[in-house]
Amino acid sequence: MNRVDGESISRLLRAWRSRVDARTVPELRGLYPRPGRRLSQAHVARMTGVSEGWYRALEAGRRQDFSESFLLRVAQALRLSEAETLTLFLAVCGRRPPGLLAPDPTDLPRGVQALLEQQVSYPAYLSDVAWNVVAVNPLMGEWFPWVLRPGANLMRWTLLDPEAREQMLDWEDSCARIYLAMLRVAANSDPANAELRTLVRDILEADADCRRIWSEESDVVEHRDGHVFRLRLPYHGNAEIRVTTHVLLPIQRPDLRFVFITPMDGWAGV
């Protein structure tokens, strides 16, 4: 935390602490002398299991090796909202709190759902951090019927389904290497995510080509926005087409990817 950030989070922490009535805190009952209305730094330290000096360093904005579990306990002790917890984490350690964004992936904000439904010109879909398909527009289901199957997952279909190797031309260089490079980034950016670890393990165990590419390559790719694919789909009579993918992150649900697919070269056969 630099000086400005430290002063800012210090002021916020003091304000958040001052609004908690110590008399309503179960962990402080039975203390002698009995706490008054004001929640003190010593009280918060007791509630979070650290020394008063350690908590005082946080509130003073001094840089320390504050753990995520400690910051989560502070958020609970001060009864912070999700936005306040996010602010605390960003100010102190520059990252989002673990598990803050864990809503039901199918519970879409109205605006995101409307944007997907109103995209009628091109295929579009939503996927989560592990590339599970959460929702699609009708055209996506017509182009790629596999997305309508229960448990549809982009990585599993692209890398493991024989159908993908027929429909995605130049599969190894244009598709497999890109998708495996994306998995490499995801697995390292969130090592605690068991679903991502399982996804990588299942793909590498199931396919020799993926194992070979994984061992040969060290490339990393964060996303495939703007990537060009050559496709041959039954929907288009198996004629070859070139498309571009566009990847957006909905501000209301940054745990989701909003992806839509547009034709290249002015082709209007959709």
Automatic annotation (TrEMBL):
Transmembrane segments: none annotated. GO terms for molecular function: DNA binding. Residues 37-86 form the HTH cro/C1-type domain. CDD domains: HTH_XRE. Pfam families: HTH_31, MLTR_LBD. It comes from the Bacteria. This is Transcriptional regulator with XRE-family HTH domain. It comes from Streptomyces netropsis. The lineage of its organism: Bacteria, Bacillati, Actinomycetota, Actinomycetes, Kitasatosporales.
